[in-house]
Amino acid sequence: MNTFLENQNWRYATKKFDATKIITTQDLMILKEAIRLSSSSYGLQPYKVIIVENPELRAKIQPSAWGQSQIVEASHLIVFANETNFGDVGIDNYIKNTSETRAVPVESLQGYASFIKSNILTLPEEARNTWTSKQTYLALGNLLNAAAELKIDVTPMEGFVDTEVNEILGLDQLGLNATLLATLGYRHDQDATQYYKKVRKSNDELFITL
C-alpha cells in the first residue's frame, strides 16, 4: 500500500495521550512548516496559529473544551484562530509580502489587489468571518497529514466554547476568534480507540463520477 495511505489508516482521533512523551523541537518545526505552507484562498492565510505550551493556560482551557483530557495530556495544544473583520490591511500586507518575496514592484500587483478586494470587501462582515474561519480547516488538514507522516497523533476538536477560549487567551483584543483546537502528541497504550477498525463510507457511497 502507498505509504501515505498507510499513514492515513494509522491515524485516528486519539482519545488518550501519553503525557510522558513530548514532541521534539525538530518535529514541531516540521509541523509548523506544514501549517505555514498550507493552501488558502488567494494565499492570504487570514488566521493565526497559537501554540499553547503553558500548562496553566491549558488547564484553564480544559473546562471550555468539554473537559476533554487531551487538552492537558497531549504534548502540545494548537489553537487555530481566524481573523475577524478581515479587510484592507490583511490584503495590503499580503501584496507587500508578495512584492518582497518575488522581487516585483508593488505597483505591478495593484490589479490583483483590487481583484481580491472586490471579492472580499463586498461581503458582509459575518460572511467574511465565516470565510476566514473555513481557511483554518485547510491548515488543519496539512497538520493532520504531516503529523501522520511523523507518526505523531493529532486530535482535531470543534467541541469547545469559542468565546471562553478567546477570553482565556486574549484573542478578542487581537481581532481573532478560536475556530479549531488540535492536540498533538503520542497515543497512550491504554487508549482502546487505536485498535478500532476505521469506519468510512465505501467508494460507491462516497464518490460520484459524471
From TrEMBL:
Gene3D superfamilies: NADH Oxidase (3.40.109.10). This is NAD(P)H-dependent oxidoreductase. It comes from the Bacteria. SUPFAM superfamilies: FMN-dependent nitroreductase-like (SSF55469). The keyword Oxidoreductase applies. Residues 10-186 form the Nitroreductase domain. Keywords: Flavoprotein, FMN, NADP, Oxidoreductase. Its cofactor is FMN. InterPro entries: NfsB-like, Nitroreductase, Nitroreductase-like. Belongs to the nitroreductase family. Coiled coil: none annotated. GO terms for molecular function: oxidoreductase activity. It holds the Pfam family Nitroreductase. PANTHER family: NAD(P)H NITROREDUCTASE YDGI-RELATED (PTHR43673), NITROREDUCTASE (PTHR43673:SF2).
